[in-house]
Amino acid sequence: MDPPADRRPWPPVWRGILLRSALVPVIVLSPLVALQPGADHRFNVYANGARYLHRPWELFGAAIASVPQYLSLGNFRPLGRMVEWTLDTATFALTDLLGLPANISLRLVSFLSAVLLTLATVVLAECVVSRGRPFAGPPSLIAAVLPFAVGGSFVAAGRTSTTVLFGGLYFLTSALVLLVAAAAARTVGRIRPGARPGWPAVLLGAVLAAFNEMAWLALPLAALVVLIRGRVVLALSWRETARGAGARFTGLLWAGFLPVAIPVRMIIARRCAAGTCYSGSDVAPSGALAALPNRLTSWLPPLMWQRAGEGPYGHTLGPALLIALVALLLLVRRFWRDLPRCDSPDRRQAGALALAGLAVLVPAATMGALNEQMQRLAAAGWWGLGWRDSALAGAGGALLTVALLTAVFARGQRSGRTHRRGILAGVLVLAAAAAVGAAANRDYRASIASERPAYVHDRIAQEIVDFDRSASGNARRCTLRAQFRAALPREHRTDYPPELRRFDQAVDQATVRLAGRRFCTGGPS
User: What is the pLDDT of residue 5?
Assistant: First the structure.
């Protein structure tokens, strides 16, 4: 007797989506695995990692205790700081456990965060376009295509891009924003949001207020996706949408958010008005409109490729492109095999996805446009430059791209064969764009590695993990310390500058934890 046919042929399709969500970002980001740390990461990975590796619970109390100090500088973010320090500790733990240099451990943690962001984008899309209970049936074609589009956005578009700087933190922040919005969209159409909807949603709103400024975008995004799914996908009336569980869930988020966010923002505004705040916390509304087109297009891959490949070592059409393309084509082959078992969206669902993409992209770009530094760079013609908004803007751009693809080749407007071939052609274009993104990342890493400060920090990371207790080892490390000092601005080289003091504290904490000795015994005690 023949075995019974599988009544649920779609679980393997979900496994394929999970596989692509994990591998596409890793393929695109892999050329950056040895990229040297920059800015505060040069110190934080060592200082925070060594401090909290064996007593991780202490970082929670330290983050709360630091609130007055940071608030006086116009910076709140206690929960975001906890996450950032936790990521530093995880990075240092990989260095301790596996003997990896800290720069490699740092990138591995960032890669994992990028995978979580890709998964969060898929979850949001599925919750928005589903006409029934999300994830209770076959996945939509949108979910199957999205990993290729999101992966192509992970380009090292300059030193301030989230792909380069604080990637773990801002990838996770963006994933949090998308998952909160997905939770709101999932409740649309229910009579009640749940048995005990009140305090968890209110608490979540307060958590978002205490996380960081990018996390604040979860509130307007949640409200917008509730409206999009209710009105566009489920065709609910205005009254049903406004009185439904999704609207109540969003209202409870705001109820927890506003009592924390309003007083904090008032304190920061006073500090910034006095000129004593951290520049990244200030806002400049007067120049935001002029900078907005720049930030709205910052996610476009060709513009980001230009920023990544500006150095003297660009070889975008070299072997890196071919290797990445071959790896991605293997994933396209799996996609083609799964395509017949995906639920094809209609034009209405594609329109809802496009609106959701705009709901992600526009607030993220607006936040970037409010920053005075981004306004100056936009005025100078720096298109495609990455910043803190890059991770979320990339997800929004991916949603828009896939919405356009599925709308053009919607099954209701095309024959089955034309539909499948059109979708495959679109996926091949997305895979090729992701491969070029990987090659652009290779160019960026080669350019940065050629700079003297990056070389010094690369050698420092290697010396810390391969600690040589001999006199020659100490001499090498002291030479690296001297080279770090020599790379400082001329006015910061006299006496014992703060940058050098911070360097000594950070690397000494790391080597004392790993090897029981200071980094350079010739330095100040």
Answer: 45
CA distance 141 to 344: 5
Please state, in angstroms and rounded to a whole number, the distance separating the CA atoms of residues 161 and 153: 11
| CA 183 to mean position of chain CA atoms | 19
Closest CA to 394 of 85, 110, 137, 156: 156
Integer Cα distance of 221 and 143 in angstroms = 19
Q: How far apart are CA 325 and CA 435, in angstroms?
A: 5
The amino acid occupying position 273 is: A
Structure tokens at 445: 């890493």
Residues 319, 323, 324, 328, Cα dihedral to 10°: 150
3-class secondary structure, 66: coil
Which whole number is the average pLDDT over 30-56? 85
pLDDT digits (tens, 9 = 90+) for 453-477: 778 888 888 888 888 888 888 888 8
- What is the rounded radius of gyration, in angstroms, for the C-alpha atoms of the chain? 24
| Residue in the structure block whose two tokens are 């040895």 | 34
Asked whether the beta carbons of 495 and 445 are under 8 A apart, the reply is no
pTM score, whole prediction: 0.91
